[in-house]
Amino acid sequence: MLVMRGIVKQFPGVRALDGVDLDVRAGEVHCLLGQNGAGKSTLIKVLAGAHRPDEGTIELNGVPAAPASPVDAIRLGIATIYQELDLVDGLTVADNIFLGHEHARLGFTDRRAANRAAGEVLARLGHPEIRPSAEVGRLPPAAKQIVSMARALSREARLIVMDEPSAALAHDEVANLFRIIRDLTARGVAVVYISHRMEEIREIGDRVTVLKDGRTIAVGLPARDTPTSEIVSLMTGRDVEYVFPPRASRPPGEEVLRVEGLSAPGAFAGVSFSVRAGEIVGLAGLVGSGRSEILEAVYGARRATGQVLVGGRQVRRAGLLQSVRRDGPLRALRRGGVVESVRLGMGLAPEERKAQALLLDQSVTANITLGGLSGFARLGWLDRARERAEATRLAEALDIRPRDPERPVKTLSGGNQQKAVLARWLLGGRRLLLLDEPTRGVDVGARAELYTVIRRLAEDGIGVLLVSSEVPEVLGLADRVLVLREGTVIHQGDARDLDEHRVLDMIMNGRAA
Amino acid sequence: MAEAGRTVAEAPVTTAAPRSFELRHLGLFVALALLVGVGLVTRPAAFATADNLVSILSLAATIGVITVGATFVIIGGGIDLSVGAVMALASVWATTVATQEFGPVVMAICAILVGTGAGLVSGLLVAYGRLVPFIATLAMLVAARGLAQRMSDRRTQLVRPDNQAIVDLATTRVLGVPLLVYVFALVVVLGWVLLNRTTFGRRTYAVGGNPEAARLAGIDVRRHTMLLYALSGLCCGIAAILIMARTTTGSSTHGDLYELDAIAAVIIGGTLLTGGRGTIVGSILGLLIFTIITNLFILNGLNTSDQLIAKGLIIVVAVLLQRRNLKERTP
Prior knowledge:
The complex is a heterodimer. By secondary structure, chain A is of the alpha/beta class. Chain A contains 18 helices and 24 strands. In chain A, the strands form 6 sheets. Chain A has a 6-stranded mixed sheet, sandwiched between helices. The longest helix of chain A is centred in the middle third of the chain and has 16 residues, at 171-186. Chain B has one domain: ABC transporter involved in vitamin B12 uptake, BtuC (Orthogonal Bundle). Chain B has 17 helices and 4 strands. In chain B, the strands form 2 sheets. Chain B has a two-stranded antiparallel sheet. Chain B has a two-stranded antiparallel sheet with strand order 2-3. In chain B, α5 packs parallel to α11 (179-197). Chains A and B meet through α11, β20 and α15 of A and α1, α12 and α13 of B. Chain A: InterPro entries: AAA+_ATPase (IPR003593), ABC_carbohydrate_import_ATPase (IPR050107), ABC_transporter-like_ATP-bd (IPR003439), ABC_transporter-like_CS (IPR017871), P-loop_NTPase (IPR027417).
């Protein structure tokens, strides 16, 4: 159906694609594998009409076709679901789905018809609960993903490109996604599927193409039978998948965080736990189980009732009954939660790295020092030499590459961007780090490095609270695990006593083991 | 992780990106040079005189001080439409009969306090009242102009002869340059230092570039936003002193449409209206371009309507050129 031959795309100073071949058949799920920087994103942008290739041919159903623009690609029947969702937050679900091909008569939109049609598409995707008239900006990430998929479906695409569609999804959502993909392929639609997760590729994929350094190095491998070790070594030359550092040798120290009866209506209720110095505590649960919300509430970025104590002292009694902090001035309270949390030694690496953590245009240095600027300042005057030296030291300690602290952070890979966010919180003596999906969109090799970094931080005596939608990650990295289901803690215990199967069972069936 | 070969290949892209301000503002310098060239060709006798240079700088000084404040607000992701009106209010308040009783120093302090106070109110409305900056400062524009008219009874208030010290700012010259130009220069230098060498400046870029990231990094975004508007108001107060010096009056009609000139200068200077990016040097160059155009039109005896058309064109051309630059820099 789709045949790409010898695609070359040159950017100033970089040969992003250096002769890529791709061959996709109708009705198959074709997986595209490769490390970050291997050229996957550029390749799909060529397919989507966002980039024009410098060399090479593209044929669609035997006819030469080179999408010259995104509109052109859609006309050719190619739809792309990007990793960074391209939805308009201010518009409704239905508006987003039909953006560019609205239900309209003489230029007047027909809202009712659009809502009805959107409802149908969403129902087909197994998500009738997403209201077509809801504002997209208010939806959780998983629902946005569904809307994005509904948009592709509504265009009657013959080829759908999905760039890490499961990254924002929890386990049951992924199952639903696969059901949708099977439904599509049964009707002859071809899917190009990009993912870092081997087990997904095994489950949904038909054939695999591996990219490395902008080149195709393996075409059309059978997805089910090719050994993981072979694929991984094709990608990297290294045999790594999930490599976790050894757990702490020392017993954990004193409590650095105690949460008592933390509740937020509609998100979670009666959550109590503690984190000790040198300990990694993992929160496992589905999207919507309250895991990210708990993290935000602890950080003071979300309203909740109950108590959060840091370093044994009461930070705030959050919620509507904002009351007096026992051993501090009233002023800190009025100024809001996050400022105080940071002052007391907390740090957060949020879920959406680019939107919530980074100043993309600014240098690695500026991003690292953002959380602790006053540490480099006397009466507001920045000591820039010391700032740069400290940022350089941290960048080296965490092995942020390339080694140029003045480089804009947006030119770094996902893994290195995440290290920059972690480095931010190593300034000024943190006691507690909150990590929300620290390895999202990070390739296999960089993941292992991040795990090592996180473990090293714990070894240095920092308490870590970790949220991840990947159960093996929580089990492999954390010392203690809290299993969440629908906003309540259903299990709390040593990570070594659990395995993936038992956790999934608890999450999905609600049985505490 | 980027593979080694790729990393090396990428390196030239970053080094090619202009970092030093000489490069970054090259386009603006070229535009300035062109305008000076036009001046030298069309009015060789009148343009290149010391007197004319001084008059350009004096003209630029008042709006220049306001532009410094506007640059901060815009980099911080906001906008301040009230600057001209706040300056007018400060000039009126400082020249009331009651204030003039206390002498020139109190008049100057009064102007600064009124300006800062008005900015603080705008800032509170934006940061804590969650009003859109455009609306909050539009309201301030209208209200401040109205209050100025009410205080002055729509009459122009003269600076009394015994408060001549204020007017001396415009008339006393050091090395041939009036004091008010030194005030302008001082504000620019202080503004540059504040933006580039302090935590306040760094946080301004962060708050404008990605407020959510700034908030989660522990920056008090609301307080910072409020302070940005207060700073803008402070600059309006200083500008009020300069306008009193130049015109020897306080009036509710001072500073009409200054907000547009200030915003235009900031935009021409390369500051993004969406926040997070911009420079003081760029804004000042943008302002000088604007002022020299005015000067050239006056010297050549052309009419002011044509001057406005020319300014409009300049804004569009400047922004179009910068967008091209931006695209090249974004990988």
